[in-house]
Design brief:
Layout: E1 22-27, E2 30-31, E3 37-47, E4 55-59, E5 84-88, E6 99-113, E7 120-126, E8 129-130, E9 141-143, H1 175-178, E10 184-187, E11 193-198, E12 206-222, E13 230-234, E14 237-241, E15 247-251
Parallel strand pairs: 1-15
Antiparallel strand pairs: 1-2, 1-3, 3-12, 4-12, 5-11, 6-10, 6-12, 7-8, 7-9, 7-11, 13-14
């Protein structure tokens, strides 16, 4: 069983914190000015954000049969060779006040025309801030060649009225438990941008790209210093914080690094 105080850990997908813990939320500049310490009043599993469990982030036209309607404002149209399409802050992933989403995702192509699944990369940005990369190469990208079977990534999602074909051998674990490097945290209505990049030798001229999303939605309560807080070492600095056994720091954007020596 995972230790839920550790981020981005492979194997079982579990809530990063529990009801007895405190969350400290930080963005690219450090702890949020709003807060940053929160108690947890509710935890709800999240899965299946769309028909067939697929949340579409690009479609050439109307949603493939059985996968519609398309999410609000999803990008549509061909994606040219070397081109891309971005889905910015999807409404479906925007939360209410004092809510946090811990999520992982798995890329799901649907009847692509003009390219194959491994020709497509998915990049993630938080506003204009690229995620999952390094300063010299950002954002990082996710390619289906690296993800675990769903149960078979050579198999596109089934068309309406059909089942997904069976793989030669089933995976040992569910892909959500191995998708740790896709883990994201969304605070309130500040969702990410998903960028679909076409590396094929032809335009993507049909089909759709979706995500299977799994995770947990946290309902939070803002904590304020009642005089009992003490100095504790958290996220690289000494800060006045609640006296609880465990405080879990979660990043909702990539931290801005310092200047090299």
């Amino acid at each position: 069983m995972c230790n839920p105080s550790k981020l981005y850990q492979a194997r079982a997908l579990e809530p990063v914190a529990g009801y007895e813990d405190v969350l400290m939320v930080q963005d690219q500049n450090g702890p949020l000015a709003k807060g940053p310490f929160y108690g947890i009043t509710g935890i709800e599993p999240v899965t299946g954000l769309g028909p067939h469990g697929v949340f579409i982030i690009w479609s050439q036209g109307a949603a493939p049969a059985g996968f519609g309607p398309l999410p609000a404002a999803v990008p549509t149209g061909n994606i040219g060779i070397g081109g891309s399409a971005s889905y910015t802050n999807p409404a479906a992933l925007q939360l209410g006040p004092l809510q946090l989403l811990q999520m992982r995702f798995h890329v799901e192509p649907l009847a692509l025309v003009g390219g194959v699944a491994d020709d497509v990369d998915i990049a993630v940005l938080q506003g204009a801030i690229p995620r999952f990369g390094v300063p010299g190469q950002a954002p990082g990208v996710f390619n289906m060649a690296e993800q675990f079977e769903d149960p078979g990534d050579g198999i596109s999602g089934p068309v309406q009225g059909a089942n997904e074909a069976l793989p030669a051998a089933f995976p040992a674990v569910h892909p959500r438990d191995q998708a740790n490097l896709t883990e994201l945290f969304i605070f309130e209505n500040n969702g990410p941008t998903f960028k679909v990049i076409n590396n094929a030798v032809a335009a993507l001229s049909g089909g759709a790209i979706g995500l299977r999303i799994w995770g947990f939605r946290f309902v939070l309560s803002l904590l304020v210093d009642d005089g009992s807080w003490q100095s504790r070492f958290l996220a690289g600095a000494w800060r006045r914080a609640p006296l609880v056994p465990k405080i879990v720091t979660v990043p909702i954007a990539t931290a801005v690094g310092g200047t090299a020596n």
